[in-house]
Amino acid sequence: VQVVESGGGLVQPGGSLRLSCAASGFTFRSYTMSWYRQAPGKERELVASITSVGGSTNYADSVKGRFTISRDNAKNTVYLQMNSLKPEDTAVYYCKGYVYWGQGTQVTVSS
After folding, report:
1. Per-residue pLDDT reduced to its tens digit, 31-41
2. Residue 84 and residue 14 in contact, taking contact as beta carbons nearer than 8 Å
3. CA 20, 27, 75, 61: dihedral to nearest 10 degrees?
4. Residue 89 DSSP SS3
5. Are 44 and 34 in contact (CB under 8 A)?
6. Burial track 86-98 (b if 16+ CB lie within 10 A, e otherwise)
7. Strands laid side by side in the 67-72 sheet
8. Is residue 2 classed as helix, strand or coil in its secondary structure?
9. What is the pLDDT of residues 25-63, one digit of tens each?
């Protein structure tokens, strides 16, 4: 099983990033996929999730209207489009599918 995030980096406040998560080794299309984040000294929190059937989405209040989660079942990939980024979005972002986690990708929002 592999869950691999990419797309993190340093961005200025107000900027955008798109994270990708490529998964293999399990039936991707059958499971809800989620993005979590963990900032230094804080607990890991759910950012967004998308269901396997119908693609219903759910977002943390702190990112509603700014982040969009999507998935491409043909590519076994889930995305997180992040717009209007704020310094408080700085964290390591993790992808989760079923019980499997990726290694995380760092997002830093700073001028």
Report:
1. 999 999 999 99
2. yes
3. -40
4. helix
5. no
6. eeebbbbbbbbbb
7. 2-6, 17-24, 77-82, 67-72
8. strand
9. 999 999 999 999 999 999 999 999 999 987 899 999 999
